[in-house]
Structures are given as structure tokens and as C-alpha cells.
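Troubleshooting log. The previous run stalled partway through. Resubmitting the same three chains, unchanged.
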Amino acid sequence: MPELPEVETIKRALTLGGRGGESVLGCQIIQADVLWPRTLQTPDIKTFKSRIEGQVIQSISRRAKYLLLHLDQDTMLMHLRMSGDVRVDALQNPSLALQKHDRLVLWFANQRRLVFNNPRKFGRVWLVSDPEDVLSELGPEPLDPDFTADQFYANLKRHKRQLKALLLDQHFLAGLGNIYTDEALFLAGLNPTMNTQYLKYEQGKRLFESIRTVLETGIRRNGASIDWVYRGGQFQNEFKVYGRRGKACYVCGSTIERIIVGQRGTHFCPECQNTRDTTLSMEE
DNA sequence: ATAAACGCCTGACGGC
DNA sequence: TGCCGTCAGGCGTTTA
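Second attempt completed without errors. Output:
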């Protein structure tokens, strides 16, 4: 489910309230329950429960697709992977039933609870004293004001890979997923299969700006809501290529295609995104 | 270095 | 109705 804008939306809701829940800042954890043991990446359940109980949520942040709850002593990190979601329940009725696929619960002292729901069980939670233990291998944050188009292009040119596969690599750039990558490549007019070795500076700069534009638009729309999981986002109404196989391109009217790139379903306009590798051009 | 195949999971959807 | 294949917002490991 979540890419950078969706996790950012959840972060803001947990910080400021919204999405049907209240802010969890200042909430003290009185008990933790792990309903699906493999949710916990580290430490073991017994240590997790004893360490987290009593700590207060001091602040909340996001790094790439990770959500970070900063506690008194430790940081709890969550990665939602494909189908994770986080909600806050107010317990007017103390026995309010948990929901299907709830995997981890933090019970607060003020009659609330934070629940990690995760149908496909891919999501993971960490409790560590130093979040860098988990985050140290991540690439740059695309919206970091100190990250520049020149740096992005220089990084691109250190690889000879299919462009989309590189953008999805979290070591290269941290936060893009399948939807926003397809949308950014369309906005930049670049073919997802082209090799980065043929990318010109102007193309790289335009890609950098397109990535920022789609991420910022996604955040402004509170992320995208698709499939059976609803989070109140609206960005799905602005998809230009994702999920539009067989439909007409809004720009040129060509039929949007779906191919596989880097093991992922990939949507693009063959006319607007007809950049191609030099080698392929010579073969044609 | 790059990339493919596969594993991890549940559920929705379309075709027959 | 059931059954079946396909697809799904991610990522780690293993294998070429």
C-alpha cells in the first residue's frame, strides 16, 4: 500500500490528528501485544514488551517509507510493505473488538490504542535505541532540500541499469514505489526500460523535478487509496498511467501499455515516453 | 554490478 | 456457485 506520500500522510495524522484518529503525541504505552509474531523484526517479543511498556511517544517522523515513533529511550520503526495500515482507536467501549488482520497493538494510558493492521503480513516493526541501525543503507530522501538535481544526475551516471529498476532501488533513492515511479517517468517523458548510461543531463534534471512534483502532489492529496484499503487519499484520481492499461493517454491519445520491468507491472505511454537506448536505436 | 527468480501472505477480480 | 489464474502501493535472499 504505502509509498512515501502515504507514509507521510499517516505520520501527519498520528502527529496532528485526522483520519478518524487523534494525535498520539504524549501517549504513554501501558501494554504492547504482538498478534502475529513475525511482525516483529527485532527484538524478541518478550524483550519488546518489557522495553516499550511505560515509554511515552515524544515525536513522530518519517524516513523513506519508514514510520518512526520516537519514545523516551527507544525508537519504534514500522514498515508497512504492501498492505500495512496504522489506525488509532478511541476506547469509549474498553472491549472494542480488534479487526481482521490486526497484527500489533500499543495500548495507551488515555483510553486509546494504536493498531498495526497488515493483511499480507509483509510489514515489519523494530524497537531499537538507534534508528540508524535500520536506516543506514537508505539512499537520499527525494524531497530533502539539500538534495540537488546535480547530485541526482551524478548518482544516476554511476549505474548502468534500467531506469525504473534503479528508481525503485531504495539504496539509490529512498521512498519511491511502483505507482509514483510510473507517474514520475511519464511526467518526465522517459521510457522505464531505458538504460541510465544513455541519460542526458537535461533528462536527469527533468526526472528529478518530476519525482518531486508527483511526490508533492501525492502528499497534497493525502496519498492514494486503491484496492480494498481506504485511507481517504485522493491521488488515485490523478494517475496518468498507473492502472490505465488499454486506455487513451491524456496527452497524445495513444494506448497506455503495461509491461514488466524489474519484476513489477509498469505502465507507460509508448508515444510520450519513446526515449530509448542508443544501442536499441542502432538495431532498429 | 546487474538482474532474474523466488519467497513471504491474503484477497479481489475476471473468465469459464 | 465454485475453481482457476492473475494481479497487488515491497523487499530480502539466492542464483546466474
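Takeaways: Chain A has two domains: 4-135, 149-283. Residues 38, 81-83, 101, 118-122, 159-162, 165, 227-228, 262-263 of chain A lie near DNA strand B (CB under 10 Å from a C1').
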